[in-house]
Amino acid sequence: MKIAMIVAMDEDGFIGKGNSLPWRLPTDMARFRELTVGDGFNSVVMGRKTWDSLPDSFRPLPERVNIVMSRDTSWIGEGAETALYVGRAIELAFAEGSDELWIIGGAEIYSMFMDRVDEIHVTTVHTGGSGEVSFPDWEKEVWRASIMKSEDIGHGDEFATTYTVWKRV
Ligand SMILES: NC(=O)c1ccc[n+]([C@@H]2O[C@H](COP(=O)([O-])OP(=O)(O)OC[C@H]3O[C@@H](n4cnc5c(N)ncnc54)[C@H](OP(=O)(O)O)[C@@H]3O)[C@@H](O)[C@H]2O)c1
C-alpha cells in the first residue's frame, strides 16, 4: 500500500486560516479529488479539525474510506472511521484493501505521518502570508522533485499554482 501526502501551501508554508483553506482553487480541488479517489478503493487520513472544516456536502469525502485521527476515545463522525494513533490509521486503510493511503492534513497530522510517507504532493500557491497554520518543517535534502506542473490564474483559481511531486531520494 502506497502512503502519500497531499497539501497546498503558500510560498511561506501556510496551509490554513482559522479552520479553513485560505484560498479558492477549483483546479487544485479537482486534482485532489482525482488523485485521492484513484481507482475508488483508496483511504484518506485527516485530523479531527480538518474533518470539522469540511462542508456537510463533502463529509465524508465520497468514494474514499475516511479515517479521522482524534485523541478522544468517544469521538464519532458519521461515515468516518476513527484512529487514535498512526499505526491504527495505516492498519484500517490496509484492512479496507486500499491500494493508496492519502494523508490530507492538517498540520498536526502531516507532522505525525512525515516519516511514513513515500511521496509528498505539494501545490505551491503563489502568494504569501495566507494564514497562521503552517506545514511542518521537512528535510528537503531527502526528497527529490519529480513532476512539476504550473497553472496560471483562471478557471476560478484565485492564484497561480505549481504542483510538484516529491519522492524520497
Ligand atoms: N492547505 C491544505 O492542503 C490543508 C489540508 C488540510 C487542512 N488544512 C488546514 O489545516 C488546518 C487544520 O490543521 P490543524 O493542525 O489545526 O488540525 P488537524 O491536523 O486537522 O487536526 C488536529 C486534531 O487531530 C487530532 N490529533 C492530533 N494529534 C493526534 C495524535 N497523536 N493521535 C490522535 N489524534 C491526534 C486531535 O483531535 P482531537 O482534538 O479530537 O483529539 C487534534 O485536535 C485548517 O486551517 C485546515 O483548513 C489545510
Structural class comes to alpha/beta
CATH topology: Dihydrofolate Reductase, subunit A
Determine the CATH superfamily: Dihydrofolate Reductase, subunit A
| Strand neighbour order, sheet with most strands | 5-4-3-6-1-7-10-9
- Work out the helicity level: 10-25%
Silhouette: globular
Mean pLDDT score, rounded?
Answer: 96
β-strand percent reads: 25-35%
Report the C-alpha radius of gyration, rounded.
15 Å
Characterize the largest beta sheet: strand count, sense, and whether it forms a barrel: 8 strands, mixed
CATH domain class:
Alpha Beta
DSSP, total strands: 10
Bound molecules: NADP nicotinamide-adenine-dinucleotide phosphate
Describe this structure in words.
It is globular, with a radius of gyration of 15 Å. The strands form two sheets. An eight-stranded mixed beta sheet has the order 5-4-3-6-1-7-10-9, with helices on both faces. The chain has a two-stranded antiparallel sheet with strand order 2-8. The chain has one domain (2-168): 3-Layer(aba) Sandwich (Dihydrofolate Reductase, subunit A). With 169 residues, the chain is α/β, with parallel strands linked by helices. The model has no long low-confidence stretch (mean pLDDT 96). It has four helices and ten strands. It is 21% helix and 33% strand. The structure holds NADP nicotinamide-adenine-dinucleotide phosphate (NAP).
